[in-house]
Structures are given as C-alpha cells and as structure tokens.
Specification:
The chain is elongated. Helix content is about 60%, strand content about 5%. Helix 36 links the parallel strand 7 and strand 8. By secondary structure, it is mainly alpha-helical.
Length: about 1000
C-alpha cells in the first residue's frame, strides 16, 4: 500500500474510533487474510464498538483458532453489529470466543427480546443433560458445559443491552434477565451435584443412593441483587440454603442424614459455578448471609432458620431478607421459607433502635472504603448505588410494617410503590430512579470489559472514553465524568434529605406571618381561631416543641399547620391535648416521626380524627400505634371476620390462663373498634359497612370468649354439653352502632350430661362469660333482658325449657323479639335447633290477631313510659317519633303477619325485610323510602353522637358545637348545626306519618 493510501486508511480508522492505528491496521490486514472478508466490509460496523482496538484484537484471536464460525457470523448484518458491539465492550467475551470459537456463531441470530427465565433454565438443564433433576454426567465436563451454556446466554443479554436504543431504560430488564440466568445456572449446577454425590468416585466423602438424594430437598434462596432480580454481569450471587424432606423421607433416611445430603449438594452446587476448571468460574456463590454467617451451618432446616430469626437475628439480617426469593431447587420448600420469613422482615422496622442501627451500618460501609478508592467508587461511595438502595430499603422497612404495597424486592419497583404510598415525592423518586439506572448502566459496562467484579470508575482518559462510548451517556471521557459527578451530587443530596433529615415542609403554603408562633401573639390567635383554653393550648404546644430532640424539631416544623388543622376541627383543645398524649406515648418511635414528617395527609387526618372524636382520642391514647393506619385507607378498612377469628384463636393458644387470654382478646376488640371509629370519622365507611364491622367485632369477641370460658368451666367428662349464644335486637340484625348494647340469649342442651349437672355448668358458663367480657375502657354490655320472662327469668335455659315456655306461656313481644334472633357463638347444631324452634313462633302459620293488637298497645306504652325523665321526646334517636323504634316495630309487625307466606321476609335485617316487603307489595316504595331514610339518619346520628363525645347517648344534643361536631362526622360542612337539626326533624316527621298510617291503621 502506497504511503498516501496508508495515511488515508489510518485517518479513516481514527475517525471510526481506533486509538492504536498501526496495530489496528495490522490486525485488520491479518483478519482480512484469515476470513477472506474485505476490510471495508469488516469495519462497516466498527464505529458501534466502544473500543474498536479491543474488538479487532478479539476477532483476530478467534480467527486464528477457527476462522469458519467468525466468517459465518460476519456474513450477516445483525452478526456484524453484534460482534463489534460485544467484543468492543468486552475483552472478556473476546477471550471466551477465543477459547470456544464455535460459540461466536450464536451472535448471528437476531433476537427481539431477552430470553425468559423458563427458556434459560431449559437451555442450561439441557446443556448438562438433566433428567428428573439429575445431570447425565457428574464429572467436570458437565461443569464446563454449564459454564459455556451460561456465557452463551449472557452474551445474548449483553448484545440486547449494547444495541438497545435507550440503554438507561433497558437496565431494569437486563438486570432481571441476568438474575434469571444466575438462577438457571444454579439449577443446572444442582442437577450436576445430585449426580455427582450419587455416583462413586466423583465427589469426596460419603456416597449416597440416588433414591436418598432424590428424596432430600434443597431450596436455594436468592438474596441481595439476585433475589431482587437486579443482578450485575459479574457479581457475587448471595444465597441461603434450606434443607429438608417429606415427613416420610425424614423418617426413613433420618433428619441428620437429610441435612448431610443437602449440605453436600450445596457444596457441589457452589463448586459447579465457582471452582476453577478448564472453563473459568462464573462468579462467587456467597452464602455468608445465612444465620451466624460464615460460622453457621451451610444448610439448615426451615424450622432452624425460623428459630434463629426469632431469637438471635440482628436488624441487618432482616434488611437482607427483604430481597429473599426462591430461585432454584425445591420450589415448595423455597416458597415456604419466603412466606415464613416475610412477616419477620416487615415487623423488624418496629424493633427498638432499628432505624438508627440501619443508618449506622450504612455509615460503617462508607467508612471501610479504602481512601484511594473513594473518588472512584461507583457502588459504595457517597452518591453511589448503595446510597439509593439503603434509602429505599429503610423507607420500605419502616413503612412496610403497615403498608403491604411497598413490600417490593426490586429497588425500582420499591421506588414506584413509595411514590404511590406518598412516602417520597414524585420529583425525588423520578431523580432517584433515573440516577439509579445510570449508575447501574455504568456498573454493567465496567464489568463487561473483563467480565470481572468491579465497581470502580476508570482512572485513565482512555478508560473513561471507552465507558462513554459503551454506555452512550456521553461522547467523550470528560463528558461521562461530568454525568457521573452530577449524578453523585444529586443522589447524595436526596439521600441525606430522605435518609437523615427528611423534612416535608407542610407549612410552605401558609402565609408568612403564620410560619412561627410568638408568645405575645399566640394567645390571641389561638382564641380567635377557636381554642377555648388558649393558655392550656400554649402549654401543650410548648411541651411538644421544647428541647433539642429530633421529635421536638419535627414538631416545631409541623406545629403551625397542625394548629390550623386542629382549629378546623370541632374541639381543637381536646384534639391538641390528645395529640400531645399520643406523642408522649410513642416517644421517638421512628415511624411516627417519619409519618408526621413525610406524610402531611396522614398528619392532617390525625388532627381531624382527634379534634372530631373523643371516642377516637381516648382509645388512640391507649393504642398509639394505630396512628400508622392514617397513611393508607386500606389500613382503615374493617378486617374480615375470618382474619379476626384466626388472630383470636392464636391469642388463646399463646395464653394459658383465661384472664391472660381475655386481656389479649379485649385488646383485639379495642383495636378493631378504634379502626372502625377512625374510618367512620374520616368517612371511609358507609353506614352498612360500619354496622357489619361492629357486629363482626362483637361476634368474634363472644366466640373467643365462649371458647376460653368453656375450656375452663367444662371438664372433659362433660364435653358433650351443647351451649350457644343467640344474638337478639340490633346485634341479631347485624345493625350495631357505636353505643349499642349486645342483646343475647343463652341456651344449652345436656346431650350426654345429667340435666342438673348441665344446668349447673351452663349457669357457670354465663357467669364467667359476663365476668371476663367486662371492659372498663370500652364496655361490652351483654343484655339478656329479651329472654323469656324478661329480667325475672333465668339467665340461661335448656332448649327443652325454651320450647316448653314458648309453647305454653310466650307473650307477643317475645315472638316479636325472636324476629331478630341469630346464632353467633357455640354449638352449630344447637343453634340450628333453636332457630327451628324460633321460626315456628316468629313466622306463624296463622298470625295471632290478639297478639298483634297487644304489640301495638305495647308500642304506645313504650313511647310514653320508657323515655328518660326530662328528655325531649322529639330528640330521642331510638324512641322518638319517626326514629329507629318506629321503623323497626313496623317492619317487625309486617314480618309477624306475612313472613310465613313470603319467605323473603324471614331476615333479621330491618332494611332487608323492608326491601322484601316492598317486593311483596306489602308497602309502597315511597313509604319504604321515607322509613329507610329515617332509619339510616337516626342510626348515623346515634353513632356520631357517641363518637363525638366518647359517651353513649340516644339523645340528639341541643348544644350547637356538639351538633356541628356530629354534622362533621356525617360529612356536613362546618357550622351546619342548624342543618343537621332540620334534616333530622324533617326526616323523622315524614317517617312518623308513614308509621302511624301503616302501624295503627
């Protein structure tokens, strides 16, 4: 080649991106001769290579070994792009193809998507000839085949990554695919291990039968980035091993031998990917996150793991478990492990000093970086990957205790969930997510170079230049350095703000003059905005904001806006005082302070609930952890009865004495009553949901109480005794409100027990039920006055006694009362028998006209005689005209008359029976609508009255402030006392007219 031509050729190479022009020219000439492809065609895609010199050297090395496969792949357009992109970014893959030149042909196959986890597992199991979990051969050749197959898969992932139009956006998918490839490699290595330890001469130590090895179960749990499906190209793969076997296998083989087999499987599985062989190892398998670290057993049973976590685990171990995911081995055992440890992960945030310990651990990691490496540390340095991961994980662990939506393994998924939960602002989250992808992209490109584990940025201009080209983040080395510096600054700023000093300034929207409260101005201002005792309020504010503690600092930042929120409530003095008491009870609890700081919505809800309901405030003072519910409506939804039953049963299993068990059951009841109360005050529940919730809570309480009492009172020899509790009144109708009594009947059937003995035991059960169910804080009034003979009759009767009484002496009001009868606790067979007895009485074939007239007479007497002295009849929500009793008595009269002919009327629900009466043509739609409206409003007013004052009352108050408070709970706008009264009186008046027409005729 003439000198001018050579000079022109070298200039062209420089423009493409070659650095060592003479060496590149020589390599290309040799390559042209080896594979017979013209230089112009060879270098057509060279500009896409991050390091064309590296790519050319790799191509020459492959061609020297075997030029045929390289010639074939370079003959295709996709093949040329893939070869230049991969070998230009990775001398490690260049070395791989030099060792196995036949493998390069796979780069010629275009793929529009990443391989799936199932496809990769299939390919790697096929590479070792696995059948039924055992590889065809347990020798080193299988390990080599596995490693070659793995690198073939990773090369496909890398090509997808390098050719992606937006490499930053591709990070999530690429990281997930790398984690799936690692899981597939472990699965294939485990198959080799099974064959290896069951074949003579292949593995040191004891030889196990193939049947015993097949019976032993080993689950491999991915931790860290592997568990989170956000793995690097070359990274330690953190795992935990769990061993076990079926009960039959445990019995046959022996527990110790099962664990021995599982341990040897684990050792050989690790060797299959990590030990030096002809084909270099893939990565290190790190099992040091297991219980007791490197000093602990490599493999434990599931029970052994759980015992350790319950007794000895430290906070960092729970943080590590956040990412746990079953990735290989026995699927069921792996799933059981993850399911068992997850609750421990998410309750760890409530451990004492948890947040401080996590923060200190992060600081120690930073402190242990060699000083020379700190400016180059992509992962552990300030503003690096670990800053983002620690921040996100801490927010997850603190708030994940109550919010399941943020229980995500992946950092990016967790960021999305944290935004959704309101724990982090969208701006911070968007910046964090983008910066995380950029940092992970840089990490990926650095590790691809030599297929080695590194987190250090290049220290040379040449290295930065290559990184800029491979990542696509900049055109020059200086440009990629500038990108990294910007990301570091931004990450560190957000990390410090959210990890150590996150102050969500809820006061930012306040007028300037309201940003601080001076002593001189505060008294007048508090009085002006509605505080009745400004001096007391000032003392409370002082106790909340004084001092240098972290809590006081946060309170000072939030207090101005919280005072405004309290003032918007019904009783700001009480709300502020209750807030102080709750704050004192919670102390420096991390999640409480974090909630106040990070969630202005939750803080506002707290002020609204406390200033609007003494019932809520008094209970919340004793259950302060309930404040956490305010961040998420889901936490305020009533818990299903099945869930409460399971919790109640678990409580009784944990406590040996009835008094201890009942204390825990009372706590459960108070907690769920509070949850329902808060939801009612905040408008989360409908009146129907409220009634269902209160009824369910009472049912679960009675069921658990009866179980506990029966276990103590009834000896084994009398276990045949049947006993049941029948709900009556509003309890039977599943229509309880706050302040409602629980009307009940008690019934027993001797079965195989002597009648006298059965009666004695039944009376003891009732006596003990009434004793242990007493709750001085939230009374549970078990009212048995609807029993035969009323207050003068025995508290409990046998089924036979009920039948005899109802047959011979029952009065009309007793048949009426049975319309609401519903079994809620005890023997199902006995409940069924009692209901059959009640049906004959409450749904008579021929209604007793004399009895119906007696019911009407009793109703008139009740209206005149049962009202408390001095109470305005029109304001009584239960007995007043057009209120609850009017609607319920009318509906019950219709049921007594027509339920036999119309089965749809056979319901304990007032509104359900009213709807059935309309459908049967027994009452007009307009009339029924007025009755239903009055029933709804009276029920809501009655509950709201109790919630507001914290005391049970059936009388609509006359105090305007109280009426306004009731209106707020019912979603009326502020200062609606008059409107509440007018709505109530108008609704009751219309319902009363319907009642008088239909009831008295």
């Amino acid at each position: 080649m003439a000198a001018p031509e050579r000079s022109s050729a070298l200039t062209a190479l420089a423009r493409i991106g070659f650095a060592d022009l003479a060496a590149a020219d020589a390599c290309l000439a040799e390559l042209e001769g080896l594979i017979g492809v013209p230089r112009e065609q060879l270098v057509a895609d060279a500009a896409s290579a991050a390091d064309p010199d590296c790519a050319t050297a790799g191509l020459v090395a492959v061609a020297r070994r075997d030029s045929g496969p390289l010639r074939a792949v370079l003959a295709t357009t996709h093949g040329r792009r893939a070869v230049w992109a991969l070998l230009g970014a990775s001398e490690g893959f260049g070395a791989f193809y030099a060792r196995h030149p036949e493998e390069i042909v796979h780069l010629g196959t275009p793929h529009i998507a990443l391989p799936s986890a199932a496809q990769m597992q299939h390919d790697l199991l096929e590479s070792v000839g696995a059948v039924d979990g055992f590889a065809e051969d347990g020798g080193e050749s299988s390990w080599v085949a596995l490693r070659i197959g793995y690198r073939r898969l990773v090369s496909r992932i890398a090509v997808f990554d390098l050719l992606a139009p937006d490499a930053v956006e591709a990070v999530r998918a690429v990281s997930a695919a790398l984690a799936d490839a690692a899981a597939a490699a472990l699965e294939a290595s485990l198959a080799v291990a099974r064959t290896r330890i069951s074949t003579p001469g292949l593995a040191p130590g004891a030889l196990f039968s193939r049947e015993a090895v097949a019976d032993a179960r080993l689950a491999i749990i991915g931790m860290g980035k592997t568990g989170a499906r956000e793995l690097n190209y070359v990274s330690d793969v953190d795992v935990i091993f769990v061993g076990g076997a079926s009960p039959e296998a445990m019995e046959r083989i022996g527990a110790s031998r099962v664990i021995d087999i599982a341990t040897r499987l684990a050792v050989q599985t690790m060797r299959g990917v990590s030990e030096f062989e002809v084909e270099p190892p893939l990565w290190e398998v790190d099992a040091n996150l297991r219980p007791e670290g490197s000093q602990g057993a490599l493999v434990r049973t599931l029970d052994s793991h759980l015992t350790y976590y319950e007794r000895w685990a430290k906070s960092w171990e729970f943080q590590a478990l956040l990412k746990a995911r079953a990735i290989a081995g026995d699927e069921q055992l792996g799933a059981d492990y993850v399911e068992a440890v997850q609750p421990k992960v998410w309750t760890s945030g409530a451990r004492e000093n948890f947040v401080d310990s996590v923060q200190r651990m992060r600081e120690r990691v930073t402190e242990h970086i060699p000083a020379d490496d700190v400016p180059y540390q992509l992962k552990l340095g300030p503003g690096g990957i670990r800053d983002i991961e620690f921040t996100v994980q801490l927010l997850q662990l603190v708030h994940g205790l109550t919010d399941e939506s943020i229980r995500q393994r992946s950092t990016l998924d967790a960021l999305d969930a944290l935004v959704g939960g309101g724990y982090i602002g969208r701006t911070e989250a968007s910046a964090f997510a983008h910066d995380y992808r950029v940092l992970r992209l840089l990490e990926h490109r650095l590790q691809l170079v030599r297929l080695s584990r590194t987190h250090l940025m290049p220290r040379t201009p040449e290295g930065l230049r290559t990184l800029a080209r491979s990542s696509g983040l900049a055109q020059t080395g200086a440009g990629v350095q500038e990108v990294w510096d910007r990301v570091k600054r931004e990450v560190r700023e957000i990390h410090v703000r959210l990890f150590y000093r996150p102050l969500l300034s809820a006061v930012a929207s306040l007028p300037e003059e309201q940003r601080e409260l001076s002593t001189e101005q505060a008294h007048d201002r508090l009085a002006a905005i509605g505080f009745r005792d400004p001096a007391g309020a000032l003392r409370t504010i002082g106790s909340l904001t004084s001092g240098l503690s972290r809590k006081a600092t946060i309170q000072r930042h939030l207090m101005p806006v919280m005072i405004r929120w309290f003032a918007d409530g019904v009783d700001p003095d009480y709300g502020l005082l209750a807030f102080r008491r709750i704050s004192e009870r919670l102390g420096d609890t991390p999640w409480f302070l974090r909630m106040l700081r990070d969630s202005s919505g939750a803080a506002e809800r707290l002020t609204r609930a406390l200033s609007g309901s003494r019932y809520v405030g008094e209970l919340m003072e004793w259950i302060p952890e309930s404040v956490a519910w305010l961040d998420d409506d889901a936490d305020l939804r009533p818990r299903p009865g099945v869930v409460l039953q399971e919790e109640a049963r678990a409580i009784q299993k944990r406590h040996e004495t009835i008094d201890d068990a009942m204390r825990a059951v009372r706590s459960l009841r108070r907690r769920e009553l509070l949850r329902t109360a808060v939801a009612a005050v905040l408008g989360v529940l409908t009146i129907e949901e409220l009634a269902d919730s209160l009824t369910t809570i009472t049912e679960v309480t009675l069921q658990s109480t009866l179980r506990a009492v029966r276990r103590q009172v009834v000896p084994p020899e009398d276990a045949d005794l049947d006993f049941a509790i029948i709900a009556m009144g509003r309890f039977g109708g599943a229509e309880l409100g706050f302040g409602s009594d629980a009307d009940v009947l008690y019934v027993y059937r001797p079965e195989g027990v002597a009648p006298e003995r059965a009666n004695e035991l039944a009376r003891k059960i009732v006596t003990e039920l009434r004793r242990v169910s007493e709750d001085y804080r939230v009374p549970l009034d078990l009212d048995a006055d609807l029993r035969p003979e009323g207050r003068t009759g025995p508290l409990v009767r046998s089924l036979e006694s009920y039948a005899e009484y109802y047959r011979r002496w029952s009065l009309s009001w007793e048949a009426q009362a049975l319309l609401r009868a519903r079994g809620v606790a005890g023997s199902v067979k006995l409940i069924r028998a009692f209901m059959q007895l009640a049906d004959d009485l409450r749904y008579p074939v021929d209604p007793d006209e004399k009895g119906l007239r007696e019911i009407k007479r009793i109703k008139a007497r009740v209206e005149n005689e049962r009202l408390p002295q001095g109470v305005d009849r029109a304001r009584h929500l239960k007995l007043g005209p057009g209120t609850l009793s009017d609607v319920e008595w009318l509906v019950q009269l219709i049921q007594l008359q027509h339920a036999r002919a119309h089965p749809s009327l056979r319901t304990t629900s007032t509104l359900g029976a009213l709807d059935a009466a309309v459908a049967a043509g027994l009452i007009g739609e307009t009339s029924a609508g007025r009755l239903a409206e009055a029933w709804h409003l009276s029920t809501r007013l009655r509950s709201a009255n109790t919630l507001l004052s914290g005391q049970t009352s059936d009388v609509l108050p006359t105090d305007r402030r109280q009426l306004d408070g009731i209106g707020r709970i019912l979603d009326y706008p502020p200062r609606s006392a008059t409107q509440v009264e007018e709505d109530y009186f108008g609704t009751a008046r219309r319902a009363r007219r319907v009642f008088e027409k239909l009831f008295y005729g």
